[in-house]
# Entry
Amino acid sequence: MSFKDIVGNSEIKEYLIKVSTTGNVSQSYLFVGTEGIGKLLIAKEFAKKVLCLNKEKEQACECKSCKCFEGLNHPDFYVINEEGDTIKIEQIREMTSKIIEPPIVANRKIYIINDCDKMTVEAQNCLLKTLEEPPEFAIIILITARENLVLNTIKSRCMMLKFKNISKEELKQYAIRNLGFEQVTEDLLESFHGSIGQALVQKQIQDELSQIRHIVDDLATEDITTIMSEAKVLYDKENIDDFLPYLSAVVFRKALNHREYLDCVEKIKNCNMRLKRNCNFDMCIDTMLLEMWESIRKGI
# Structure
């Protein structure tokens, strides 16, 4: 893969290509942006270019560093992910003890901490000293979709690059060309939230999303018993975080021509808030469906 194969964020890619070519690289970065928009892919491609021993080569470089990178066994490149639900202080301690060792193949060492917001507070504080005084050959790239969970003391020591969501047109073309979507409706596109990662999730649950569209279509014509029967798809705790945004997008599209559906957007939002407060799952879905049905019936 190369930068040109990664969709979106052209300005950031151009900037990273420039600094990796000139060698004017900062020692710590914070990549911030929506989940699934390619931050990790871009970070890896940036790392490959920085570690490359032949800066004049535009692509298909055969230097030892690039071969190691392509073979997934580069001794100077590391990615730290969560173990369980968090990135633990032990992982950061291991990183800080090894980062001082000189590079083996390249002239630099690069550590990527993916989903760095999952670091415990202790782990973040442990990382601070290394961010303040990193070895001259070391580069640390932090990646997050939840900037608010990263300590300000961490953020202040990094160059922050804010990634934009992928444009609707780019995302639509990618979904059809690369993900196998036969068509991408406007409500489906809205539910992607500018993220290829989210589009991948939606691809896997296309049948369920089709059922959700039918539920919305039937709100104005069917009785509540039928709606509840059709809505069994929504009683899925594992996928509800994907279903509700799509349901909201479908309802909002309906509301553009039928204002009575606007109230339904609020009902979905209230349901989501109750679920986040760990209220009874089935009761939250029951209440949402009943309130949506009543709102639509009042407007007819």
